[in-house]
């Protein structure tokens, strides 16, 4: 087989020296960020636990489609109750961690602390779940109606990354509103990683929202989107310039992303920047660049292509 | 450590009430979609099982590169036979589920049922595997030849997301043709999630296809792509407008995506929409927007940039 | 339940025939690529093992944020030492595999062999880890300062895909320089899959680099990026045409990607191609297409949109 | 079957030769046992699946003690219903396998086939579960009352191997009576492996049965044990001689193990063999050897020790 | 609690009815044992968590033999510190659960509550770990010296079930003394299940204790064993009769198991019952039955076998 | 080694102090046992890896009964070849570790080193596998014939702990003969833990060996057992006194366990000690104590019980 099995490692790194240098780097960072005095374990929400919560909630929202494959419809209420109870217990723990971390760090850095208790947040969240389900149902229907390739609502629910992103977004948005923006961000980043669709939990999105393909979509934190809107891949609803403070740091808060009214369609690669309003029923063509208001029912499209000669060269990235 | 351990949860959500509301939401959806009468377990193909099948087929196609790390070449035929047998067994089970679901739902919603049996589909699929392997070999070679950063065919096979997407696509396309479009879609969405490359299983793609970087590529269901085509990141081969029925639902079927002839190169961010033909050997420059036919050997490129002054502002999304 | 349990599979594929055809396909490929004579197991670095190494190094670099949730700060040096020792052991094994494969295949295909030993590579890599941490700290700070939605440095580190991509890139770049480009490529592709950000390990990137959203970013192998640069989603720093040899294969090596100087900002969707220089402090607007040098402090933006009438049609991809 | 010809590693076993010899050994065995003609997968109950069923039933019987640690009492009925539904589904599948195997093999070897259907067996089993729970409750109480070291009924349930063995036995016995002796045997052997207590599923045992320590206890297939019996470690309730047929094979069936009446106590190491009756209230001392009836309320004990001199030697096993 | 009404499967058990009957059985038990009023999750130490603690402590005690296989000796102190910290954290949590449960149930049932805090218990336990290691070292040495089949101390540590049982016992005994007898019992039952050796945590055992083979050994809660004692398989150090109270329940506490002085050897199958003293240096032969004191240096052996004729029958259990 | 100074938690153990004391205990042990100078990882065979090997060999020996549940008989040779190849690779690695450790430690402690190479050992082992299978087949048949409760050979193979123990023993014995006694011991201890049957790998056992129930059986290292022998639970074939050296350590080697000739039956609890011979066809009754030769065809049984009065007391262990 092989004649190897590790030879002696005389010429190997001095692990202690590497550890010391890494410790020095950590010390410098912590001095600069007021984190020197934090004995004990990390007390922050955990991405893994948040992922468990979302996975459980997917089953709670759609037990016979996204729950366990052997679940029988006769038992779905029981499954929903049990799974919800466990998921809310884990959520409560994570919410407590965020609120404590918030009190420790964010207040110290100038933001105001969040006044509500963890139990109240989790209770409100649970009470809003059936609204989330009903909203998502409108999204599934919108996709089925809008996409000629969709053969059934089941296919949409099981396969479409846009729906996966919206399940995460609608959960994350509710958590954001309830005062746990870090957990909310973790929820939305899980979808971002899986689908390439980046919807900030702070964005407001109406019913029957349709995302096609989705990769590369970015929807910023203060965007407001109406009902029956359709957005294709690589669309950006972003911010334009924003003021910075004396230290060159962005001043946080304040509306800076677009308002998209009902029934707007935005084709792939379009970019809309700043607090502009895209009027009801407008259509933005692919790859357009919009930094001003668009009147209702307007069609906006890009300058067309031009031919520049016969092919003879090749180029790559 | 911590003085906590959950305090009583008096102020906690009324789980029963939440469960009731979720049940009501499900009931409304099922009434609207003719799914009220479905006791027993979910009978639909499973994303997890489909993922297992694809993982096994990757090893079957490339045993010494994508199979188990300790497999010895002397035993690769045995590994291929065993793994194939298991994978086809699981596939047979999933195909049966899709055919039964198809008979139950799609027929009810107006599409015609699929006439072939599960065994015939799986048999045809298995018999086509060596063709899939030979096609993929041309893709690997195309990538190695086209990318100056590629140091060996092994690196291409192990690292390039374009190859991962093509393995999934070529499997999915075959399944799509054989009459199990839902399983096929699951196969392609697994690659979409992992690579950001969205190739609909219905698309037709010739040999020596090269995808570079890949993130954001969209290839629609009725696209037809010739041999030796190269496509870069964020290229869309999409549909233009299509008629809707009286209820505003897209009329399904009918060719609506581009035909891309042999030897075409399409650079990053280009968008081609509708049933247009990009003639043999044409080159579409980055970010161009094409909605009409392009003659063979034509180069199409975007209007150039313009400078608008000195930098002084900053903006972000 | 179900009356099934597999019926006999008379009409099933002839597994032996499929195995034979797959073996024939493999044989043809191996003949063409000089790989016929390779008995024994695959001797190539493994994506799974490389993923383990990177996961461990994330904890080594940021023990209290990306290490185990129950780690107490009092013990972080111990955790770092232990984890590092294990990770470097695995890395040593993978480096040996790559060097041996390199000697076998790449030399045979014309490239020069790598002269350094595995121990020396791993030692140098370990000694550079604290520099990587310090560079990453500047990236975290840059994101916190530049993004008005960022509420704390912890949120940036835990949630931002740009930071995840940079952890991978800075590790991969070091490995690339040390002579194990295949392992380096695996490290960067793991981030590409998870974030949609594709940074080639060969690229050179200065401190305080900020990636926002990130999906679709492509940075080529010979790109050089200065300090304090900001790049948004879907930006390409790619190559333009390059010469091919007599067999139509790209000639490898040679600078072919942009130089981006300090303090440049490149907005979403911009494409910069070829060995051009974007001068210090320049701003490239969203979706611009740049193939020539840009002078320092210049603002480059796209031609604006135009309105083409009232909305009445719909189109999709 | 296969043309597979792996070349041997130089200094290593000829794998093909070993495989051929093993195949020859299998062929000889199958010829001798009428199992040559069995294409397809093994169709026998699976130890792993049976273990899953028992694990689930433990939670169904004692949800707040042997179910999941985070189960809240408010939800125990839901947990019981869901878990039961899944476990019975798996049981149904295993029962079908045993019935089919029984029809194939046991009938052929002379035993009569079992006439009842799988659904009826599982239904009867489910309907008897609350009786099993009530019986087990009497066993827990008996242990608590009899053992001066037991501090609470919870400790008995969580820690005592005798209780673990009785949970398995009471389930296995019911399955044995219902006509699936192979599954029943798997259930009891799982407890035998874990506790060293070997109770044949065919044995009949009354309520308030107390097993102390338990290791080495053997209770044979036709033993009958009354109420309130106590048995200590290493007790055997076995069979004496039994007739063999012309081929020297044991003649199966027929009562051959002891009857132990109510209130009997049998101390450690006692051996009782054959169809004898230990009368009500009798006490069998440790290590006694009993092959005849014992009258009610008799005490039987061993001949006492004798001293044989001063210690000077040592011996070991 | 819930209005959930699952329709029965036709030929299947009425799950709801089974659930109701199981709930009734639980209700009866809880009424009888004062456990009706326990909403929320089970608050008892968990066998799984206790198993994790013991597994970690095995590595802490013998890092280079029972710790992770790739641990390098250079790092063993770090491994010990990290693993200990985590294990003590989990232990603290389990100790708190036991103390709370003790206060709730045992007090109610008449025993006195335990006055010490969880932190103090865990601290004392940790401080005693090196004593446990030193004691275990004497046990390993005793086995190596006493067993002619032992080829090295490493073999003893890695393979001998007696050592496994003693690691558990010495941990469990310390926990028992510190006031957490339920956790202690779980620790010892884990070894009982794995080795067939049942040592009650309450027993007192001196140094250089040697257990050979071990299966079936029982050592009772109040036994006291001196130094350099050797015990073979199936030895019982048990209790004789003890008084019961008016309800027939054993009166708990009070010494009732043997005292075994230094240098005693007890061969396989011997049974010693009651508060008798086996004097220093005595030897108890295999299978003897002892219920009275044995003077120091005495050899006790069983009455010898007798031949009863020619073999002609066969018997089995 | 490290300057690591974790501050103690207030009310908690001083982890550093505990670590120091544990290190001191290790140091003392290592000084006494010549193990101070062993940097690097543990280089000893691993119980986990050995368990994997045995699990694989079980499938190799009985593919359609102990292999994967979904294996189809058509593919069993392929499964056997692949599994064997992997298992032998792992075995080779473990054999190398044992040989190296042997050279380091055992030689130092006085035993002679083993001269054969790892490849030769593994090759011989593989070549003997079909003999092991044929021997095991005789054992299965013996159990089926001897046990009136056995309903089929499949039940014996799937459920009987005696068969499980013999699979391990026959593998372990072969490894012991080939010169890797530590790995062999690990194999047999895995069965000891699972079944309570302790057969030393050095023992010699003929064909058609039948073990019933099995718990507590001990068969010593130099025992020799003929063909068609039957042994019941709790039987000991052990050693009597043996000489010790000047330091009181057992002198190792030399025959010290019984010879049991063909066709002997030994009933439960019997103890046979020393190098005595139990002649062909003899029957040893339950619980007998034998330390002298027994002539062929003799029946040996215990003195019978006596009744000592009426029951009125209770006793427990």
What does this structure look like?
Six copies of one chain form a homohexamer. Chain A is an alpha/beta fold and 317 residues long. Chain A has two domains: 35-199, serine acetyltransferase, domain 1, CATH 1.10.3130.10; 216-317, UDP N-Acetylglucosamine Acyltransferase, domain 1 (3 Solenoid). In chain A, 43% of the residues lie in helices and 12% in strands. Chain A is built from nine helices and 15 strands. The first copy, chain A, has a five-stranded parallel β-sheet. The first copy, chain A, has a five-stranded parallel β-sheet with strand order 3-6-9-12-14. A four-stranded parallel β-sheet of chain A has the order 2-5-8-11, with no helix packed on it. In chain A, α2 (47-61) runs antiparallel to α4 (76-106) and α8 packs antiparallel against α9 (181-195). The longest helix of chain A is centred in the first third of the chain and has 31 residues, at 76-106. Chain A is globular and about 65 Å long. Chain A starts with 14 loop residues before the first helix and ends in a 7-residue tail after the last strand. Chains in contact: A-B, A-C, A-D, A-E, A-F, B-C, B-D, B-E, B-F, C-D, C-E, C-F, D-E, D-F, E-F. At the A-B interface, α3, α4, α5, α6 and α7 of A face α1, α4, α9, β13 and β14 of B. β14 (298-301) of chain D pairs antiparallel with β15 of chain F, so a sheet runs across the interface.
């Amino acid at each position: 087989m092989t004649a190897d099995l590790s030879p002696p490692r005389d010429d190997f790194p001095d692990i202690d020296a590497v550890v010391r240098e890494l410790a020095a780097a950590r010390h410098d960072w912590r001095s600069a960020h007021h984190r020197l005095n934090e004995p004990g374990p990390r007390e922050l929400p955990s991405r893994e636990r948040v992922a468990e919560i979302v996975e459980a909630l997917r089953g709670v929202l759609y037990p016979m489609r996204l729950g366990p494959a052997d679940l029988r419809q006769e038992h779905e209420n029981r499954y929903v109750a049990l799974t919800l109870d466990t998921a809310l217990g884990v959520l409560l723990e994570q919410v407590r961690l965020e609120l404590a971390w918030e009190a420790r760090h964010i207040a110290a850095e100038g933001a105001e602390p969040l006044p509500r208790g963890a139990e109240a947040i989790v209770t409100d969240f649970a009470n809003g779940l059936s609204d989330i389900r009903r909203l998502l149902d409108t999204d599934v229907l919108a996709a089925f109606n809008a996409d000629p390739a969709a053969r059934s609502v089941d296919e949409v629910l099981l396969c479409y990354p846009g729906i996966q992103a919206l399940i995460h977004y609608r959960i994350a948005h509710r958590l954001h509103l309830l005062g746990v923006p870090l957990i909310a961000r973790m929820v939305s980043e899980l979808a971002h990683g899986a689908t390439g669709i980046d919807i900030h939990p702070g964005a407001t999105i109406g019913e029957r929202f349709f995302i096609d393909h989705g990769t590369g979509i970015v929807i910023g934190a203060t965007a407001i989107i109406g009902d029956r809107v359709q957005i294709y891949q690589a669309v950006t609803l972003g911010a334009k310039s924003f003021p910075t403070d004396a230290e060159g740091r962005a001043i946080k808060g304040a509306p800076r992303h677009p308002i998209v009214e009902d029934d707007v369609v935005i084709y792939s690669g379009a970019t809309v920047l700043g607090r502009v309003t895209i009027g009801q029923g407008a259509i933005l063509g692919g790859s357009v660049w919009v930094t001003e208001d668009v009147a209702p029912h307007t069609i906006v499209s890009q300058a067309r292509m031009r031919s520049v000669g016969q092919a003879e060269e090749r180029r790559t990235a």
